[in-house]
Amino acid sequence: MDIATNPEMADAAPTPHEPPVIRREDYTPFAWALPETRLAFDLGVEKTRVTSSLSVEPNPAAEPSPVLRLNGDGITAAQVTVDGAEISDWTMDGPDLLVPLSAGAHVVGIVTEIDPSANSQLMGLYASGGMLCTQCEAEGFRRITFFPDRPDVLSTYTVTMTGPKSLFPVLLSNGNQTGEGQNEDGTHWAEWHDPWPKPSYLFALVAGDLVANTDSFTTMSGREVDLAIYVRDGDLPRTDHAMRSLIKSMEWDEQVFGREYDLDVFNIVAVSDFNMGAMENKGLNVFNTKYVLADADTATDGDFDGVEGVIAHEYFHNWSGNRITCQDWFQLSLKEGFTVLRDQMFSQDMQGEAVKRIEDVRILRGVQFPEDSGPLAHPIRPDSFREISNFYTATIYNKGAEVIRMMRTMCGPEAFRKGTDLYFDRHDGEAATCEDFITAMEDGAGLDLTQFRLWYSQAGTPKVTVTMNYTDGEASLTVHQSVPATPGQAIKKPMPIPLKIALFDPATGTHRGEELLLCNQAEQRFTFDGFAQKPVLSVNRGFSAPVTIAREIEDHELVFLAANDDDAFARYEAMQDLVVRHLTAASSGGLSDEARDAARDAIGTAFGAIITDSALDDSMRGELMMLPSITYLAEQQEVADPSAIHQQREDLKAWLGVRFATELAALHDRVSQLEFSLEKASRGARKVKTQALVYLASGDPESGSKVAARQYDAADNMTDRQGALMVLAGLGTAARTDKLIDFHRRYADNELVVDKWFALQASSLHPKAIEHVKALAEHKDFTLRNPNRVRSLYMAFAANPHAFHAEDGEGYRLIADLIIALDPINPQTAARFVSPLGRWRRIEPKRAALMREQLERIAAVKTLSRDTFEQVSRSLG
Ligand code: 0A1
Ligand code: ZN
Predict the structure, then answer these.
(1) I want to staple 119 with a disulfide (CB 3.0 to 4.6 A). Which of 126, 295, 546, 835 is the partner?
(2) Which residue numbers delimit the Peptidase M1 membrane alanine aminopeptidase domain (predicted)?
């Protein structure tokens, strides 16, 4: 479909008012408490009637008010009653409904009518492939009915749903089912009651023609829980992995955090149209199909891990998020940072600690570090926002997890568990704050977090410089830290940074034990003696702190660490550092031939050791073989030239491919012998297989294309098939076209695999990737209405630096066109495309000007949503 827009039309639109800024310091409790909420839904895809009955009483902890303010968004009240009698003196204040109320307890009734089929934002109640479902976090409930739609108003919900049985045989809501029945007109009804008070953002309803994979779980105190995963009919065979993941999550949360599930049922529903990954609604998690459906033919090993991790994440929210929720949205990281840490720990236990840690750090550095150094930087507990949807960020989630992980590193696992136990005990049933969590950690784990609180209030990734002086057997480390200025925060204070280090004796290849240095001043010195020769420094082992490190170290020392470090992350880091140094120098120009050869030699030595080290498991080998991404490399430079980086990175890949052609071919052959299974060794083999192919194809595209085509044809699983197609997509050979056609034909019925087909082409190294994206936007399978499809084409493209940063600015224009076209349909998803353009300050001046130009073009659209308005104005600001 055509997404080009007509800017003149946009100019003719009325001038919007600037969306207001909401501030953390303005928090006040709500004047009313709502002990009970009853909702009756008369369901239809085009018309749903919602009748609410809210029991309200003055909140003793708040200033009394003569009016009840109920939030709304795009809805009108058909009727308002107080204590059973219709009233007419209600008023509207913008989108909100104001009901005058005398002091004391009342029952307020409201009727609204909504059209789920017209809801393209996918917030509130919407239709997805004939079914009805809801998404209420953060502020979607107010699109269903008028309500105090804020996380600190907790209520118990009883929900009745009535609808045609033929369309909606399955009717689900939160909690336990308490009733059902048939009506004579062909409709049926179900009643659900959730005994646990919850905020409105955790409400959910699903009505549709669905089938379920069912199982059960006995909790640690012996309660039976019925588990069900609801999907469309044909998808049932792809739900087993999700079910196994759910059961493992339930067991793990009991064992590791002592958390037991608290309802008789736990339901999961998969929907195709979803803005995010999944949602933790109490007892009724709603998932993007991408994070439920998986089998070997259609999902990669990475997809399997994604399902396991997201199932765990949503399940863990039952305690960190639902039993204890957030006082206000500024506290979002209270539930998200903590829950991400919990899901990361779970996945480390399931998949292996080292590799999972490397993957998590790669995400943090690839997404959160750039955010933290750009115009959208914010602390993990922000102070203000215009649209909360814009704050579901890598900073809140991933940096939030790192901050809590540091607490755990500082106090150790046992004390950490005491801290979390105290937090859960103390705040169960409450809407809490980050400060409550920190205090519970201080009291329970015995930490003093006075200075550590800066991690919650200061944005920006600290830069740590470590230099070593060696004299007379003594190694002294000077550690210097600085936190860069970020929007609205010019001056920063030093923060406590727990750095795990080890000093290696280069003669023996060993060290005498890991040390934890707590660096909490701008500059500090630590001395260690008894070294016969200058030791080699391994620092930030396990990525103990989310900082960037600059260390004085020789290439040969990095080669030594890449081969010998007993900390898997540090070993990976040594290899990355070696490559980063070389590619940053090479892409900023002026690298002599000798310097280039010396650097390549060092990289080659380390790479050769990695591909031939028989003591290394393949899963780790695959990690060590990966070159740093262009985005990460660009992040290392004040102002980057993405095409220079791309070119140098490709040159290095090709050089490695040629130099190690024989070894890589042998490696590819060896791992190709292994049978498919989901066991670790087999997964590791698949990772290495595609890595080896990547280098072989770089070194010799013609023969690489043949190997890739063979890998594609021989594949009995999606990991191998997608890996081969990914390599082919970047090549100009005939096999590229053949296999792309074959892939689409084979999987035409599977939306998630068709998403992969779009993404592979949009993220390819092919010189014409941009032309391909334009053509794909016209493909019959493309639509702006489905967020997965939009992301598969355009997010993949925006994350493909060599295509997005095309010299003439065409990539920027394409993304700006998309934002302008998507904003009126789905503002939340549209706003997520602004940040790639917002990186302009860190890109060389010619491109930077073109990026800015596109941001200005978007800003000129007078009808911009709050979401996109906020992101664009921050990016230009
Ligand atoms: N709380 C969810 C994330 C989420 C947030 C907003 C949504 O609205 C579209 C959906 C999901 C989580 O952390 O998984
Ligand atoms: Zn979450």
Answers:
(1) 126
(2) 242-452
Q: How confident is the model at residue 11, as a pLDDT?
A: 41
Q: How many beta carbons lie within 10 A of that of residue 255, not counting itself? A: 11
- DSSP character at residue 472: T
Convert the pLDDT of each residue in 234-259 to its tens digit: 999 999 999 999 999 999 999 999 99
For 116-127, the pLDDT digits (tens) are: 999 999 999 999
Q: Is residue 314 flagged as an active site residue?
A: yes
Alpha carbon distance, N-terminus to C-terminus of the chain: 33
Picking from 291, 288, 311, 317, the residue whose alpha carbon sits closest to that of residue 302 is 291
Residue 826's region, left for phi above 0, alpha for psi from -120 to 50, else beta, is beta
Distance from C-alpha of 681 to C-alpha of 550, rounded to nearest angstrom: 35
Residues lying with their CB under 5 A of ligand 2, a single-atom ion: 336, 339
| pLDDT of 3 above 90 | no
722 alpha carbon – ligand 1 mean position (Å): 28
pLDDT over threshold 80, residue 10: no
**Within a 10 A sphere around the Cβ of 97, how many other Cβ atoms?**
25
Reported as half-sphere exposure (CB side, CA atoms, 13 A), residue 834 has a value of: 32
Nearest CA to ligand 1 atom 3: 279
Closest to 590 in 3D by CA, of 541, 644, 531, 650: 644
Which listed ligand is nearest to 291 at the C-alpha? 1
3-state secondary structure of 738: helix
H or E element at residue 706: helix 701-714
Atom in ligand 1 nearest the alpha carbon of residue 339: 13
Ligand 1 touching residue 110 (CB < 6 A): no
Q: Name the closest ligand to CA 787.
A: 1
- pLDDT > 70? residue 7: no
- Kindly give the number of the ligand 1 atom that is closest to the alpha carbon of 274: 9
Q: Considering the candidates 139, 191, 314, 870, report the single residue annotated as catalytic.
A: 314
Alpha-carbon distance of 317 to 315, in angstroms, equals: 5
For residue 138, the ligand 1 atom closest to its alpha carbon is: 6
- Per-residue pLDDT tens digits for 653-675: 999 999 999 999 999 999 999 99
Q: What is the ipTM of this complex?
A: 0.99
pLDDT digits (tens, 9 = 90+) for 406-457: 999 999 999 999 999 999 999 999 999 999 999 999 999 999 999 999 999 9
Do 651 and 598 contact (CB within 8 A), yes or no? no
Q: Which residue carries 């859960």 as its tokens?
A: 424
Count of other CB atoms within 10 angstroms of residue 153: 21
816 vs 618: CA distance, rounded Å:
41
**What pLDDT band is residue 17 in, cutting at 50, 70 and 90?**
low
Tell me the pTM: 0.98
Q: What is residue 127's three-state secondary structure?
A: strand
pLDDT value at position 218?
99
The token pair that represents 264 in the structure block: 């008789």
355 Cα to the center of ligand 1, angstroms: 26
Question: Is the beta carbon of 135 within 6 A of some atom in ligand 1?
Answer: yes
The CA distance from 159 to 173, in Å, is 7
Question: E strand or H helix at 597, and its extent?
Answer: helix 593-612
Assign residue 703 a region (left: φ > 0; alpha: ψ between -120 and 50; beta: otherwise): alpha
The pairing of beta strand 265-271 with beta strand 224-231 = parallel
Q: Tell me, what DSSP letter sits at residue 654?
A: H
Taking the C-alpha atoms of residue 161 and residue 38, their distance in angstroms, rounded to an integer, is 11
pLDDT tens digits, one per residue of 376-395: 999 999 999 999 999 999 99
Position 16 scores a pLDDT of: 52
Which of helix, strand or coil describes residue 112? strand
Residue 156: other Cβ atoms inside 10 A: 18
Pair of tokens at residue 578:
């070696």
Nearest to 730 by CA among 775, 690, 694, 781: 694
Q: CB–CB of 455/476 below 8 Å?
A: no
